[in-house]
Amino acid sequence: MKPVCIIGAGLAGSEAAWQLASRGVPVRLVEMRPLKMTPAHTGGAFGELVCSNSLGADVLSSPAGILKSELRKLGSLVMRAADHSSVPAGRALAVDRERFAGEITKVLEEHPLVEIVREERSEIPSGPCIIATGPLTSGPMAESLRVLTGEEFLHFFDAVAPVLTLESVDMGKAYKGSRYGQGEDYINCPLDEAEYDALVEGLLTAERAMKHEFERKQPYFEGCLPVEILAMRGRDTLRFGPMRPVGLPDPRSGREPFAVVQLRQDNLEGTLFNMVGFQTNLKWKEQERVFRLIPALREADFVRLGVMHRNLYVNAPRVLDKALRPAGRQDLFLAGQIVGVEGYMESTAMGVVAATGLERFLHAKPFPVWPRESAIGSLLHYLSDALPETFQPMNVNLGIFSPLEKRIRSRTDRCQAVAARAAMAFDAFLESRGV
After folding, report:
1. Domain ranges, ordered by start, for the chain
2. CATH level 3 topology of 163-306
3. Pairwise pLDDT comparison (275 vs 38), residue with the higher score
4. Which of 304, 429, 302, 299 is nearest to 374 (CA)?
5. Mean of per-residue pLDDT scores for the chain
6. How far is CA 192 from CA 145, 174, 229, 287, in A?
């Protein structure tokens, strides 16, 4: 069998390569990094996380946990690497970025059925192929896809939060603790009312990178808004959002602070931490100046500052079929964030879907019908049935699952019921050899 081509070795492309190779299908995995970099990546490792190091909640009382459970059942390489490189993050699954990407890269480089090609592809190749170039697809490839689909790309702007060293945090002005006493996985940097107001004023007056382009009513992803944009939405927006102090009392006083900035571990050694919810488009010098207004971060040593980048995605309900194929190419599949999902695990799941579809295509077998009750099936349903006129990227959430037969008011109880139903449907799907 000739190798199938996968372009892009992010989460979706890496997962697709693993899924196909594990089923005996030879793969040629093409990645342009590090020969050509994107505005957000820092190296050439496969599956590099460019935004947060958190992969979201990892409990079945959350939609994100349901999706992770399904990926584990599918033998996901991305999930295996995440579990092996996890760092403390309470009820969430967060990873050491370098170890996570390093394991994915090593596994694929050593697989006998995976050939690695380091080059930029500007055109869509003939023959069976998966395009998983992600939201930072290069200009030439984006143009090739635009010509193929006959549709302009949609886009939004996304941002990255800064990372700093633990030793530069003033622990005399910070304290450890997870919300509601659930462990000590986070470092909390409290602010009183005057300190909070000074930070908000700093964010409002700081100079932004590429200011003119981003101020012309450009679309942001609501789930990852720059902290300075949140500050513009009102004086209290931040302390009811990423700086919410509820459930985080300062052990020295026993009282909740006026606001709090949380730091989450970013590597296994525990020497690096990122600022939770502090995605930003401020100029680098301005980031250092403004974020050092936080008392515990007066002497912060920032090893990576925030950046903003433009994310592309196709109008899936208009240009893709239920197998993630554009019209006119039965042997071409799209995967990852480029199809219109948002989130690391959602992108990984679309890699599984594309790989499964391509493997079925190669063997002239019917495509799997992913259960509507499952997280993966719900994401696919959204991609095919959303209104094209208002289509925006979607992450897994309770709103995209099919309604329960009986209404349950408690969100936790409702999610547990959805999880139980999803698990039953997904297990039956696997037992029937749906994939």
Report:
1. 4-156+312-431, 163-306
2. Elongation Factor Tu (Ef-tu); domain 3 (2.40.30)
3. 275
4. 429
5. 93
6. 51, 12, 21, 20
